[in-house]
Amino acid sequence: AKHLLSIEQLSPEEIETILNLSDEYVDLNRRQVKHSDALAGLTQINMFFENSTRTQASFELAGKRLGADVMNMAMQASSVKKGETLIDTALTLNAMHPDLLVVRHPHSGAVELLASKVNCAVLNAGDGRHEHPTQALLDALTIRRKKGRLHRLSIAICGDIAHSRVARSNLILLGKMENRVRLVGPPTLMPSQIAELGVEVFDDMREGLKDVDVVMMLRLQRERMDGGFIPSEREYYHRFGLDAEKLSYAKQDAIVMHPGPMNRGVEIDGLLADDINRSVIQDQVEMGVAVRMAAMDLLARNLRASSDEGVMV
Ligand code: CP
């Protein structure tokens, strides 16, 4: 493919290919071999129209470790603030001939629209409540490395599902890899077309976590709640916050995940988040660099192959 816009677009075989190459990059990074030339001579521009710590930092590091020239657009200081549209901004950058554009945007579908207007490869770093494909891939890599497989696992995704692109991408990926996914959270924070998803839904944490292999917690996405239902933090933590007691309903070796940023004492107990015997939150961050290296490496191979074809024609 030319772009990485969604998990929806990927086949199980393509997901495996990305994870297998990511595994090689994890091992390389652990041996502190932090440079290769997979993206040498290529220009990567990161455009984040929404705040980010993990995704932006890891895309930047990934590009630099692969030898790309990486530029971070400071969107807060850009001409977007003077009224320039997303498409005009993209066309302006496109005229500078980047090879890879990494884009995060608050509106669902904005990254796909942008990809249709530019010549380079586009990677979706999160669009509204639609998809966050590299997050689901790094979650999958973490699960595969911790559990030794990525199929026939029982996985509970818990919390604010309705507003979460992370939940959506994970649901699609884990389903494609033949896992049993459950959604756990208040009915007010479940997507409206829940029946079409074909997954089990629980509004009780103890029932929802019973015998699962993986517990994936999510943040309350207040910025996407549009003045609708916003639960009180204390009440929410009491009913849906993950602590050791609720986790005791899951399998004894169940792992705890969170994409970050987390709100300690709202959706997760701070001590549990730091418990390295159960929590793999820092592993997820580490896998994020490797997955983004692999995704950009594979897209760059396609770019080079199609430009070689161009020369031959
Ligand atoms: N998980 C995630 O996307 O984190 P950031 O918003 O910090 O990039």
UniProtKB/TrEMBL annotation:
Residue ranges annotated for the Aspartate/ornithine carbamoyltransferase Asp/Orn-binding domain, each copy included: 153-298
Binding positions (carbamoyl phosphate): 54-55, 104, 132, 135, 260-261
SUPFAM superfamilies, per the entry: Aspartate/ornithine carbamoyltransferase
Domain Aspartate/ornithine carbamoyltransferase carbamoyl-P binding per the UniProt entry, residue ranges: 2-144
Catalysed reaction equations from the record: carbamoyl phosphate + L-aspartate = N-carbamoyl-L-aspartate + phosphate + H(+)
Pfam families reported in the protein's UniProt record: OTCace, OTCace_N
Keyword Transferase included in the entry's annotation: yes
GO molecular function, one term: aspartate carbamoyltransferase activity
InterPro entries on file: Asp/Orn_carbamoyltranf_P-bd (IPR006132), Asp/Orn_carbamoylTrfase (IPR006130), Asp/Orn_carbamoylTrfase_sf (IPR036901), Asp_carbamoyltransf (IPR002082), Asp_carbamoyltransf_Asp/Orn-bd (IPR006131)
Enzyme Commission no: 2.1.3.2
Family membership: Belongs to the aspartate/ornithine carbamoyltransferase superfamily. ATCase family.
NCBIfam families linked: asp_carb_tr, PRK00856.1
The protein's name in its UniProt record: Aspartate carbamoyltransferase
Species annotation: Pseudohalocynthiibacter aestuariivivens
